[in-house]
Amino acid sequence: MAWLYDPKSKEPFRLSRSKIEDFLKCPRCFYLDRRLGISKPSIPGFSLNNAVDELLKKEFDILRLKGQPHPLMTAYGIDAVPFMHEKMEEWRDALRRGVQYLHPQTNFLITGGIDDLWQDKSGRLIIVDYKATSTDKEISLDDEYKQGYKKQVEVYQWLFRQNGFQVSPTAYFVFCNGLKDKDAFDGKLEFDLSIIEHEGDDSWIEPTLISIKKVLDSHKAPESSLNCGYCNFISKAKSII
How confident is residue 217, by pLDDT bands cut at 50, 70 and 90? Predict the structure, then answer.
């Protein structure tokens, strides 16, 4: 299988942004998946989230063609416009293409599929990610599970820097919060849109890639992670069966 890592192979090994996140969550589960082909149970796709993403892309693309900022950007005082580039659709294609960089120290082909790019007045690219949710709480990046969001955009920042682009350290999340306080559904959802910024730091990526290489080259799986729900489930199941 091409997606399985072979320590003897000289061919570049494709490593997506999401698989880097899997490694950070649990090196053992990552090893079982990428080295031995034993994947975790899959989860259903987020169809509504994907629909929101697609509609936002269409909305920003209209303004991209005009070279104009989105009203939401103006409302938040962001002096930038959607970035026009012939590779936008390629960079958005996370499954087959995405933005790519061959990391020479590991021979990993690092890939990631972005939602959007903006460009500020100095010419720097701004990584933008769309997020759909529905909550009565104030939107923030403080929740534990949202720490992965930060890592996500930092990988994208790193990828574009490796491809020779000037990239702003500031990334933006466009949050679409589904409203639940309406009197009726009436066949439509309404959203509040907000923007939250994050100052990225990609210094963790290089050492992480080296660690991934070391783990994949090993003939022994890492120890189970204490915080991994899958590892804990298997451990408890084995103690009973």
Answer: very high
Contacts of residue 217, Cβ cutoff 8 Å, sequence gap at least 6: 7
Name 104's bridge partners: none
Domains and CATH numbers, the chain: 13-236 (3.90.320)
- Comparing CA positions, the residue from 192, 195, 197, 160 lying closest to residue 179 is 192
Element (H, E) at 48: helix 47-66
Handedness of CA 6, 10, 11, 16 (dihedral sign): positive
Cα–Cα distance for residue pair 51/189, rounded to 1 Å: 12
Q: How many Cβ atoms are within 10 Å of 5's Cβ, its own excluded?
A: 21
Rounded to 5 degrees, φ, ψ at 11 are -75, 145
- Number of Cβ atoms within 10 Å of the Cβ of 188: 7
Question: How sure is the predictor about 45, in pLDDT bands with cuts at 50, 70 and 90?
Answer: low
pLDDT tens per residue across span 79-92: 999 999 999 999 99
**Torsion angle, alpha carbons of 128, 143, 15, 88, to 10:** -10
CA dist 201 and 212 (Å) reads 19
Look at the pTM and tell me if it is higher than 0.85.
yes
